[in-house]
Write a structure and sequence with these properties.
By secondary structure, the chain is mostly helical. Helices cover 65% and strands 1% of the residues. It has one domain. The protein has a two-stranded antiparallel ribbon with strand order 1-2.
């Protein structure tokens, strides 16, 4: 009986470890002015906008239009200033090239005038026989004018830039662009005359190889200390037909040389006039 009572006491003494719902908690604070001020207040957007007036739309459009237009004009002005500077630089460079061309052209004309006069003297020997030692010596002297080259080459560095890199688009003055095109055309005519000049000169040089013995310049009995000794100069042939053919080719060379000179002489005033025009148009030095 005692054991049963003890067991009952043990079961009755079981400890309840659960925590009451309101244990350890203070009283719930009631909302007041201070708490309400600390709370973040969210306002819902007003979804019911008032319609804008036509005047407001117009002003917005006008502002956008003005902004775009001013931006366009600013960019155009910047490009215009840049192109103007490039145009001035191109013209200064081209002016320098033309001045160089003018000097080259003058020297080439002088060189070929001397050549033409020498070939003229050589042609006059065709009227005399070559049995006379003096005539043969003169023939050897004047033959050196045959085969002489002096050709004009334009300084076309700026011209190539204008053509190949789109430089011509920055040339705003039409009459200047026309002048550039004209000068380029005039140079091409000179080069065309040069082709005949070279062809005729080469033909005459080949002809001299059939008439003259160039080994005499290494033989001191004929040529010593830069001068002929007076000994009769040899010819490779006494065939009158070959002599006539030789002089025909010399005459051909002289005609081509004179034609080349005329082409240069015709273009030189054009070049000098163009130099003056570009200087004045762009106020260059």
């Amino acid at each position: 009986m005692e054991e049963t009572a003890n067991k009952g006491n043990l079961s009755g003494d079981t400890v309840d470890h659960s925590i009451p719902a309101n244990a350890g908690l203070g009283p719930v604070p009631s909302p007041n002015a201070s708490n309400t001020a600390d709370m973040e207040v969210h306002h819902h957007p007003d979804l019911h906008h008032k319609r804008k007036k036509a005047k407001e739309y117009f002003l917005e459009f006008l502002m956008i239009f003005l902004a775009v237009t001013l931006g366009f004009f600013a960019e155009s002005l910047r490009e215009s200033i840049s192109d103007s500077n490039k145009e001035h630089e191109y013209m200064q460079s081209w002016l320098n090239d033309m001045r160089t061309d003018s000097l080259k052209m003058e020297y080439t004309i002088k060189d070929n005038l001397r050549k033409s006069n020498g070939l003229d003297s050589l042609m006059k020997l065709s009227l005399h026989g070559f049995l006379n030692p003096a005539n043969r010596e003169i023939l050897y002297q004047y033959k050196n004018y045959s085969g002489f080259y002096s050709i004009f080459r334009s300084n076309d560095a700026t011209m190539l830039q204008l053509k190949n890199s789109g430089g011509l688009r920055v040339i705003k003055k039409d009459h200047v662009a026309d002048s550039i095109a004209r000068y380029d055309y005039e140079v091409k005519i000179i080069y065309a005359a040069e082709n005949l000049y070279i062809t005729a000169t080469d033909a005459a040089v080949n002809s001299t190889h059939e008439i003259f013995d160039y080994s005499v310049y290494y033989d001191t009995s004929y040529y010593k200390n830069g001068a002929f000794t007076g000994k009769q100069m040899p010819l490779l042939t006494d065939d009158p037909a070959k002599e006539k053919l030789f002089f025909n080719k010399i005459n051909y060379e002289k005609g081509a040389t004179d034609n080349y000179i005329r082409n240069l002489q015709l273009r030189l005033p054009v070049l000098k006039s163009l130099i003056k025009f570009i200087r004045q148009e762009y106020r260059l030095e």
